[in-house]
Structures are given as structure tokens and as C-alpha cells.
């Protein structure tokens, strides 16, 4: 079974081309990122990252896995955002502060999303804030 933490470390290494930089990006130790990559490579029974003194590059298997891994992380990010948003709405926490919190959490969680998805989240959140503000204005007139 593939572990999301291992996949996130794999994508970080691909982005940074360096285990140390990937560890820093993920706020993990370099040893932990190395273990994540090793476990992912063992689970898939193939080498994903070619390591050298000048940096890291994906192997052909790593290149083939990359778009699938990015899509999986994006799907998980969307699921987490929707779950967190629905949970906060049900609990009655969507207010001016709650929306700001949700927006920041969404942008942090959706780090693997493309810019258009993040802009969509911002548009939805601004629409909610605007609707919430107009409701407050009507209520307190």
C-alpha cells in the first residue's frame, strides 16, 4: 500500500532536486525523507530517484509516477478541503474568522494543486464572505 507521506516526500524531492531541500520544505529530517523514498521504491519495486552529487533526477519510473502522484495528492487535498469546510459549516464556525481560517488552511493543504484550483478556492471563499457580510448587514439594519 502506498503512503501519502511517502508520495509527498517523493514529489518534494522532484520539485527541489535535493533531499535536504525536500526535507526542509516538508519540515522533516533528511533521514526521514530518505526513508520515505526508500519505502516508496520498495513498495513499487523500482528505483524512482537517481541520486548524484549534483542533485537528484527522476528515473524513467519516477517520471512516469510523477503525474499520477500529483493527481493523487490533488484529489486528497480537495477531499480534505471539502471535508474540513463541511465540518466547519455543520459546526457553525463559518464566520468572518472561520472563513479566513478555512481559506488559509485550504491554501496550505492544496499545495499540490495548480494555480487555477487555488484561485477557485479564493473565489468561493470571497463569495461566501460577501454573502455572509450582506446577511449581517440585513440582520442588523
Summarize the structure.
The chain is 75% helix and 6% strand. The chain is mostly helical.
Write a structural description.
The chain has 141 residues and is mainly alpha-helical. Helix content is 75%, strand content 6%. It has a two-stranded antiparallel sheet with strand order 1-2. Helix 2 packs across helix 3. The longest helix has 31 residues. The radius of gyration is 19 Å and the shape is elongated. The termini are far apart.
Which quaternary structure do these chains form?
single chain
The main sheet comes to: 2 strands, antiparallel
What class, by secondary structure content? mainly alpha
Strand order of the largest sheet: 1-2
Beta-sheet strand percentage?
A: 5-15%
Amino acid at each position: 500500500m502506498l503512503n501519502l507521506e511517502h508520495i509527498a516526500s517523493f514529489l518534494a524531492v522532484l520539485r527541489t532536486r535535493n533531499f535536504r531541500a525536500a526535507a526542509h520544505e516538508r519540515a522533516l529530517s533528511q533521514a526521514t525523507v530518505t526513508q520515505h523514498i526508500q519505502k516508496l521504491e520498495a513498495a513499487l519495486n523500482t528505483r524512482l530517484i537517481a541520486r548524484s552529487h549534483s542533485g537528484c533526477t527522476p528515473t524513467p519510473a519516477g517520471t512516469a509516477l510523477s503525474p499520477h502522484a500529483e493527481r493523487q495528492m490533488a484529489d486528497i487535498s480537495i477531499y480534505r478541503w471539502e471535508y474540513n469546510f463541511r465540518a466547519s459549516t455543520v459546526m457553525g464556525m463559518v464566520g468572518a474568522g472561520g472563513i479566513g481560517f478555512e481559506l488559509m488552511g485550504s491554501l496550505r493543504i492544496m499545495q499540490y494543486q495548480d494555480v487555477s484550483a487555488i484561485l477557485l478556492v479564493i473565489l468561493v471563499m470571497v463569495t461566501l464572505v460577501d454573502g455572509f457580510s450582506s446577511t449581517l448587514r440585513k440582520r442588523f439594519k
